């Protein structure tokens, strides 16, 4: 089997033109990224969703640049043949351009990402343009933007009326003009997501945005039901239930230790008889009684 080669932004645009769907999944550590690459995923996103599924926060807002750098570096060590995108954390690209570029530099140099993702539309176009001009690929993200969840009134589907649809279209075109290589559409009605996908030349990657986008992204923990208290989501399909398998496996381990079934004879290392005699002055059979 030939070694996998990482995508680049030119290949992604060609995939859109050819109707070849792009696959993306989140990953936050070495083993999950390694497994994702071995499964031939196109893009790994080190999302600030790590705040919810890894760090135990109620939202993505507490996630810091240090968090993103740390987790991106782990992913990069595992998935050297996969295109890696890292989220810019909350409020790290709404100040000065210099401050924004310092954050981007850390994620690229210390985290070894290939690109960054930014939530927002026309209001962040200037920052996007500056990052792209500095030589860093940017993935846009509109629709439901978790970093702005308090402002937009919760986790609501976007694009349900004409005014909202127009806003999303304008945001998508503003991001395209600013130089993004793709746009994530989150919780957007299928009709509006399709219209945006046709209107822009860059790939659109949906999550809860229906069937007529150029690719799909899901959270690692949703795909695999990797959670102790998993909540079903309408826009997610789970492909395995490793949470249940892990829980059952650990419970079986606890039971076998408690009942002294583990370790068994096959897990034991035995010393020579002369060692036992030297320690206890007895033969081995007597020492182990």
TrEMBL record:
Q: How is the cofactor bound?
A: Binds 1 Mg(2+) ion per subunit.
Record's function text: Catalyzes the reversible reaction in which hydroxymethyl group from 5,10-methylenetetrahydrofolate is transferred onto alpha-ketoisovalerate to form ketopantoate.
Which gene is transcribed and translated to give this protein?
Answer: panB
Task: Spell out the protein name for this chain.
Answer: 3-methyl-2-oxobutanoate hydroxymethyltransferase
What domain of life? Bacteria
Q: Where does 3-methyl-2-oxobutanoate bind?
A: 48-49, 87, 117
Gene Ontology process terms (BP): pantothenate biosynthetic process
- Cofactors, names only: Mg(2+)
Per its UniProt entry, what is the enzyme's top EC class, as one word?
transferase
Q: Which positions are annotated as binding Mg(2+)?
A: 48, 87, 119
Q: Where in the cell is it found?
A: Cytoplasm
Q: Which family does it belong to?
A: Belongs to the PanB family.
| Subunit organization | Homodecamer; pentamer of dimers.
- Which residues act catalytically here? 186 (proton acceptor)
């Amino acid at each position: 089997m030939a070694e996998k080669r990482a995508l680049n932004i030119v290949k992604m645009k060609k995939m859109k033109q050819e109707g070849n769907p792009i696959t993306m999944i989140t990953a936050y550590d070495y083993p999950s990224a390694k497994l994702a690459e071995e499964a031939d995923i196109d893009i790994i996103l080190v999302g600030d969703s790590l705040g919810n599924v890894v760090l135990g926060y109620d939202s993505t807002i507490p996630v810091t640049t240090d968090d993103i750098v740390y987790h991106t570096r782990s992913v990069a060590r595992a998935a050297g043949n996969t295109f890696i995108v890292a989220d810019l954390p909350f409020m790290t690209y709404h100040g000065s351009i210099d401050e924004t570029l310092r954050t981007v530099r850390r994620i690229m140099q210390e985290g070894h990402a290939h690109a960054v993702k930014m939530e927002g539309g026309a209001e962040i176009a200037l920052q996007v343009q500056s990052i792209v001009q500095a030589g860093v690929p940017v993935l846009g993200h509109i629709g439901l933007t978790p970093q702005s969840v308090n402002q937009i009134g919760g986790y609501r589907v976007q694009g349900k009326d004409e005014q909202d649809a127009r806003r999303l279209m304008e945001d998508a075109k503003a991001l395209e003009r600013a130089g993004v290589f793709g746009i994530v559409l989150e919780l957007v009605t299928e009709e509006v997501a399709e219209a945006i996908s046709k209107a822009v030349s860059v790939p659109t990657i949906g999550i809860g945005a229906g069937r007529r986008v150029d690719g799909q992204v899901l959270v690692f923990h949703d795909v695999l039901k990797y959670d102790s208290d998993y909540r079903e989501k309408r826009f997610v399909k789970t492909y395995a239930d490793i949470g249940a398998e892990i829980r059952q496996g650990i419970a079986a381990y606890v039971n076998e230790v408690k009942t002294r079934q583990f370790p068994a004879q096959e897990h034991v290392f035995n010393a020579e008889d002369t060692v036992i005699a030297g320690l206890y002055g007895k033969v081995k059979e007597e020492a182990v009684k």
